[in-house]
From TrEMBL:
Signal peptide: none annotated. It comes from Caldicellulosiruptor changbaiensis. Its EC number is 3.4.16.4. InterPro entries: Beta-lactam/transpept-like, Peniciliin-bd_prot_C_sf, Peptidase_S11, Peptidase_S11_C, Peptidase_S11_C_sf, Peptidase_S11_N. Substrate binds at residue 244. SMART domains: PBP5_C. This is serine-type D-Ala-D-Ala carboxypeptidase.
Length: 454
């Protein structure tokens, strides 16, 4: 064997060994969801990110953990006050009790007997977190802080915030003053729907024109302490459009923040954080980068039908009047935010029914949480026939059915008679033929005499 022929098998052996070693090497495997969607790493003990209009949950961290909300409480205070008083120009008188707040806490330093408008009090409370302004609002709206707090708790319960309890309108620490990130998101959604409240919390600078007792002119100008809105802040976020900060030693950094980018509106709730603004930015970036808007129901879409008149067997189509959108994760493999819905029609719907009467609801869920309830409307009007008309209609219907039956019966009888007649004719003809055949005899010409003709 030549030297060259000896090297060939040795070379093949080395290649095979190299391939074997490569196959033994560990290969990192990444799921598609992990590679495309990194969940935000935040310092908050509890947080939630939702779509602002329908409440769809996009991210949550201990959302039902009870926490102290600090001054984020003031969003609820504003909601309750605005639900009871529409006149922003109404003047409120400052009482001695209203200005008795914790020393060193946020304040506009109102004086006893001073007059401040409802609007100015709202701006002071929401922009610079003035605790005295919150007390003034509560007293003038409900007569006392205690009565106002009762209404705060009732308001929270009415919107589904069932794991919260408030004891004051400003959020100063009290062991019995608590809420959850989920409950605060429900409150924040209500605030986002309120145009007056949205306008106030999105304001960066405001001039107070009342409550000028013992104050220098520069005190009239107040600036929003929400750093997401301040262009000179390192936390400035261009898509942020408001809400409320909060802090106490026990609550740590708290924040309700809202933001809008293109056609997506988000709300972030941060509780018990070391850096609430940084946490909010991470949550907003996660939401805007990983979710897109998708139409779940089209405008005027027929969703089903329901029987509205059993006597006349009348069905009416139900439809959804407006389009309904949800957010879908751009990572198609993600199943954490699946949207489901359940259609329910009202029972025992009785006519008359006008067009666009509510005849049912579509309940939409995300991750097991109820997002929204959409009314199903009747697609047409329906007025039942009167009893007399109904009887006439029934008789007419019965008569028509009877006549049809009679006609079918007579037609069948005529058909049978015709068939019987044809069969009889055929039978008679056959009988005649047989009779003719029997009467005909064979003539034997040989029996006749053989005579020659002349």
């Amino acid at each position: 064997m030549t030297q060259k022929s000896k090297k060939v098998p040795f070379s093949c052996l080395r290649i095979a060994l190299l391939i074997f070693l490569i196959l033994l090497m560990p290969v990192p495997v990444y799921s598609k969801e992990e590679s495309n969607t990194l969940l935000p790493d935040i310092s908050a003990k509890s947080a939630i990110l939702i779509e602002a209009n329908i409440g769809q949950i996009l991210f949550q961290k201990n959302p039902n953990l009870r926490c102290f909300p600090a001054s984020t409480t003031k969003i609820l205070t504003a909601l309750v006050a605005l639900s009871k008083e529409k006149d922003l120009g109404k003047l409120f008188k400052v009482s001695k009790n209203a200005i008795m707040i914790e020393p060193g806490s946020s304040s506009y330093y109102l004086n006893e007997g001073e007059i401040i408008s409802f609007q100015d009090a709202l701006y002071a409370m929401l922009l610079i977190s003035a605790n005295d302004a919150a007390n003034v609002i509560a007293e003038n709206i409900s007569g006392s802080i205690q009565e106002f707090v009762k209404e705060m708790n009732q308001f929270a319960l009415n919107i589904g915030a069932k794991d919260s309890h408030f004891v004051n309108p400003n959020g100063l620490h009290n062991p019995q003053h608590y809420t959850t990130a989920y409950d605060l998101s429900l409150i924040a959604r209500q605030a986002y729907k309120n145009e007056t409240l949205r306008r106030i919390v999105s304001t960066v600078e405001y001039k107070i024109t009342t409550a000028s007792m013992h104050k220098k002119p520069d005190w009239q100008i107040i600036y929003n302490i929400n750093k997401l809105l301040r262009k000179n802040s390192k936390y400035y976020y261009p898509y942020a459009n408001g809400m409320k900060t909060g802090y106490t030693a026990q609550a740590k950094r708290c924040l309700i923040a809202s933001a809008k980018k293109d056609d997506i509106d988000l709300i972030a709730v941060i509780l018990s954080s070391d850096d609430a603004f940084a946490d909010a930015i991470k949550l907003f970036d996660y939401g805007f980068n990983n979710f897109r808007k998708e139409e779940l129901f089209k405008q005027n879409q027929i969703i089903g039908k329901v029987m509205v008149d059993k006597v006349n067997k009348k069905w009416i189509d139900g439809y959804i009047k407006s389009s309904f959108y949800v957010l879908k994760n751009k990572n198609t493999n993600s199943k954490t935010q699946d949207i489901t819905y359940h259609i329910t029609f009202l029972k025992d719907i009785k006519p008359p029914i006008n067009k666009d009467t509510v005849i049912g609801n579509v309940y939409i869920y995300s991750a097991g949480n109820l997002l929204s309830s959409i009314p199903i409307l009747s697609y047409e009007s329906y007025i039942p026939q009167s009893k007399v008309t109904s009887v006439i209609h029934t008789v007419k219907k019965g008569f028509v059915k009877g006549m049809k039956f009679l006609f079918d019966f007579l037609l069948a009888v005529v058909g049978l008679i015709f068939i019987f007649a044809i069969a009889t004719i055929i039978r008679l003809r056959r009988k005649r033929v047989k009779l003719r055949l029997r009467s005909t005899k064979t003539i034997d010409f040989s029996s006749f005499p053989n005579k020659k003709l002349k």
